Amino acid sequence: MNLDKIEKIIPKERIHINAPMAKYTSFKIGGNAELLININTVEELQETLRILNEDNTKKFILGNGSNILVSDEGIKGVVLKIDIKKFEITEDKQKYTITLGAGCKLGETAYKLANKEIAGLEFASGIPGTIGGAIRMNAGAYGTEMKDIIKTITYVDRNGNIHKIKNQEAQFEYRNSIFCRNDDIIVECEIELNKGNKEEIQSKMQEYAKSRREKQPIEYPSAGSTFKRGKNFITAKLIDECGLKGYQIGDAQVSEKHAGFIINKGNATSKEVEELIEYVKKQVFEKFGEKIETEIEIIH
Ligand SMILES: Cc1cc2nc3c(=O)[nH]c(=O)nc-3n(C[C@H](O)[C@H](O)[C@H](O)COP(=O)(O)OP(=O)(O)OC[C@H]3O[C@@H](n4cnc5c(N)ncnc54)[C@H](O)[C@@H]3O)c2cc1C
């Protein structure tokens, strides 16, 4: 790994050797990454990729770590944490185009826009991810998904070349997009939103936050909903009907509040969470004959 070359383009305080992934993930689980670099600009990303490609160093792209389970053995190679924070607004007849860096957090962005009386990102205010991670997953809540607001997406391929695509080209589906099937790195997007009323936007976000607090175990570390929604069934309901709420392997537990969430009760390991996922899948299949899929990504 060409650490010397990387140190010439990235300041030392943004290069972390043996970075504990538990610190960088909402699950608070995972061994060390050999190297983790905070990437602040597109140019830094392009140059870093070119250096890492010289000796084929393995790379993993990290947003806010809120949809992943990192293995106890950690991550080999380099984690590139995308912290690109652009935030620009243009207005045309009360229609707004907002350019966002992939490292912008959804919650912070929704509150910033509310202050400017721009409506439409309320649905994402409680999703603890970045714009990049949310585009890749087509994250959504309360009936709206990223695909409903995205106009264009700018990405960098693994050779460091930059490209821009339109919404339709991203092939958005439920918790899925073209970026789940390739290695491209999202760096920026444009979203289109409308003028709104500040009080109305804020009260909608408060209502969503209240509903999350009541229904989801947000007081414990997790990666959100562990399993995908079924085509013709509600996954959490099937897990609940298997009597699995509160079922625990080590410190990994099927939440008592919401059966679709596996939570970390304290010192859960990745192995325990994985075993629990497999156990839940098996129980649901045996009782209902349904195969349930994980929404979270397991990184080995
Ligand atoms: C309490 C809680 C509640 C949640 N609620 C919801 C919800 O309501 N709806 C929902 O959809 N999700 C929800 N999630 C899941 C998660 O927050 C979303 O999937 C989020 O969009 C992930 O973004 P991230 O930046 O954290 O991605 P990460 O977890 O860092 O990464 C996820 C995947 O995206 C890739 N990735 C990250 N950034 C980029 C990039 N710039 N370019 C290319 N690939 C990239 C990573 O390599 C990884 O494969 C919740 C999670 C938690 C913990």
Detailed description of the structure:
By secondary structure, this protein is of the alpha+beta class. 27% of the residues lie in helices and 27% in strands. Strand 9 (140-141) and strand 10 form a beta hairpin. It is globular. The two termini are 20 Å apart. Flavin-adenine dinucleotide binds next to strand 3, helix 4, strand 9 and strand 13. The site of flavin-adenine dinucleotide has 31 residues, from strand 3, helix 4, strand 9 and strand 13.
Question: Brief overview, please?
Answer:
The chain has 300 residues and is an alpha+beta fold.
Here the CATH topology of the largest domain equals Uridine Diphospho-n-acetylenolpyruvylglucosamine Reductase, domain 3
User: What global shape is seen?
Assistant: globular
Provide the low-confidence segments as ranges.
none
- What is the typical, i.e. mean, pLDDT? 97
Number of domains: 3
The CATH class designation of the largest domain is Alpha Beta
CATH architecture of the largest domain: 2-Layer Sandwich
Structural class: alpha+beta
Main beta-sheet strand count, sense and barrel state: 6 strands, antiparallel
Spatial extent as radius of gyration: 20 Å
Features:
alpha+beta, Uridine Diphospho-n-acetylenolpyruvylglucosamine Reductase, domain 1, 27% helix, 4-stranded mixed sheet, 300 residues, binds flavin-adenine dinucleotide, Uridine Diphospho-n-acetylenolpyruvylglucosamine Reductase, domain 2, Uridine Diphospho-n-acetylenolpyruvylglucosamine Reductase, domain 3, 6-stranded antiparallel sheet
